[in-house]
């Protein structure tokens, strides 16, 4: 028996070597799907026809054991890369998504995403070499989150690119292109646009809520970025937990079939949010049991289930004739295509990313990139008497205080990796100040005690105080993760903890020396409550592992701040419609008519800029034209720096037209006393609006006005033109 086992093992090894040799010498492999010379569809179809129906069903689950007899690998589809490879150990942690949106720099976003996929490939290669086929070490990433941050109460808004459809589309597209790479044959990694669709709170009832919107708001607001990412070739779309107009997102005909597949011609795979299929019969109660849900999901085009429902109940649906094997094949094909495009069935030498290793993870170049991204994300909200940038020679002693000054959470946000190269705010400021400056640190206060404070005496004796206060991801975030949030991850109000404000007030009362307040948050907060007690205010968001160094670069003038708010800072939740009301009326800068703390796109600089027309838009356009204009930008201040030139469109009178709408932007660097010409182009086709009566897109004829400035309420230049349909 022992000799027999040895014979079979030897025979198996010889067979494997023979297959490898045939492949290396250009001979036809045993299976067509292993032959990289064949076209993708032929390879996918061949693999499909080798599989039994039981194997097909098993492969529809996110956590599957592959098909050993065919060499289909064990694979877990669940991986995260919101702002760096997440939950997989060592990785570069970039600024949270809302901070990246504040850069208004989609070119930088693409470079960042490319770095993320480099680290992802390297980690995957290292794991596979050790035969580790585990969760969070794969290549299919459930990022980016392109839901609109329509309401500041939503805890997960920090994961998004803000409240504007156009900005979200630009930043999301850049992320997808950077993550997926530019190989004509292979994906570097697979991106996923989530959560499809109309999904932005409340977190507490995200498994049961029914978002009601008419088709105008649906098309113009909630689906705009998804359509852009599909056009950009995003490999995956994740269907959401909720219902939209009574249809569960993961089985509904309107979203998945009519719009995503039929209209947009999406060719990638659809993955469910985790447990979303169980919600349909257990919580939404729109179907009687799991078998009916399994059949409906497959028919709707779901390829990967982030639960075990399809693996457990799809065979029952097949036996009950609720679904056919042809339906199962159609659902599985897109997922198989993704695996082929990732190179799972090709020799390692053929895939351009297999040489990446440990040297590509959290290296010096990526650390420098994270620092640059954090620098560009920070928003200067107040700067009385030009306190900033700090002149080092003026300050012999600095006191750093506040509960978030040394907080890892305040840097890393949610869905994060872990980096051994972290710079807290305390560390970054201390290093930048240098060894000849006295720098002290004190926690100052905690999140609940509004009476007992530390560090006040030391602050009184210092030349400058820097107080780092605000929110952390345990106070706002996803259901369950933000375990100290009052409403299932959502915010109860715009306030930062009352103890932080009380501490800052006590600090101001103690002395009249300069105070810089640094606010960490992933959303709009009540800056007005702390504004009287600070001479300068910097919004740092959750800036990633290099947040401390980046903040110091801003405070000491190594860079001039040019971050811009990707959300409106309202004065109160009372100014907004009900949280669970998904109508756009009264929300975001596009439809809000009240007074605000800070408008969308706002941010101060250490320098100033003068705008003038180099080339105005033409007087008239037709629907196939592109509106082109050139702005002459002159740096009229004392510092070199970047300006975010923003172009907003005002529409002709029509049904529910936005008050104004961002349609182009450019972040440009201008040296001190320098000048730049900035050309902005807006396709007339991008001015289309949804006609509810005709149920179609159309461009309204009439007079349009483009307004160019530094934020949504800043009108430096203004020019009208007409659009006529043929």
TrEMBL record:
Keywords: Hydrolase, Signal
Domain Fibronectin type III-like: 643-712
One Pfam family it belongs to: Glyco_hydro_3
GO MF annotation, one: xylan 1,4-beta-xylosidase activity
Keyword S-adenosyl-L-methionine (UniProt): no
SMART domains: Fn3_like (SM01217)
Domain of life (superkingdom): Bacteria
GO biological process: arabinan catabolic process; xylan catabolic process
PANTHER family named in the record: BETA-D-XYLOSIDASE 5-RELATED (PTHR42721:SF3), SUGAR HYDROLASE-RELATED (PTHR42721)
Family: Belongs to the glycosyl hydrolase 3 family.
Protein name per Swiss-Prot or TrEMBL: Glycoside hydrolase family 3 C-terminal domain-containing protein
Organism listed in the record: Dawidia soli
